[in-house]
Structures are given as C-alpha cells and as structure tokens.
Write a structure and sequence with these properties.
Order of helices and strands: HHH
Structural class: mainly alpha
Helix content: over 70%
Number of helices: 3
Strand content: under 5%
Radius of gyration: 20 Å
Largest sheet: none
C-alpha cells in the first residue's frame, strides 16, 4: 500500500509540472499571437499554401514531438535516479 502512495505522489507531481510548463508556454504565446496580427498572417499563409504533398511537414513535426517527449523522459529519469542515490 505504501508503494501506491509513492506512485500517486509521483504522478501528481509530474502532472503539476507538465501543466505548469504548458501554461507557461501556451498563455504568453497565445497573448502575443492575438495582439500583433499574426492570426491574419496565418490565414493568408494557409490560403496561399500550395497543394503539393505535406508529408515533409508531418514528418518534421512528428520527429520534433518525439525529440521533445524523449527529452522530458530523460530529464525525469535523471532526476529520479539522483533522488535514489541520496
């Protein structure tokens, strides 16, 4: 039963850290984009986009996402490993 409490504590800390990081990045980016006319530029860019294949963008976005997830997992593993050594 004690192990489950550790898991719940770890999970709640991880969720709080992830939520804080997302909010720290998304809210300022949204406020910036809404305040300087980026929305209109994005709409124009979407209208003018060529209709050729978008596989390169999909592949690049997926690769970037995997790299970010890998970095987060690596940081969590390193932090948890350092806590066990103390």
């Amino acid at each position: 039963m004690e192990h489950m409490a550790d898991v719940v504590k770890w999970w709640s800390r991880m969720t709080a850290a992830l939520t804080g990081a997302v909010l720290a990045l998304v809210i300022p980016a949204h406020a910036w984009a809404a305040g300087n006319g980026v929305a209109e530029v994005a709409v124009e860019a979407a209208k003018r986009r060529s209709r050729r294949g978008g596989f390169g963008l999909l592949f690049g976005g997926g690769l970037c996402c995997l790299l970010v997830i890998g970095a987060v997992v690596l940081v969590v593993l390193l932090i948890s490993r350092n806590r066990k050594r103390r």
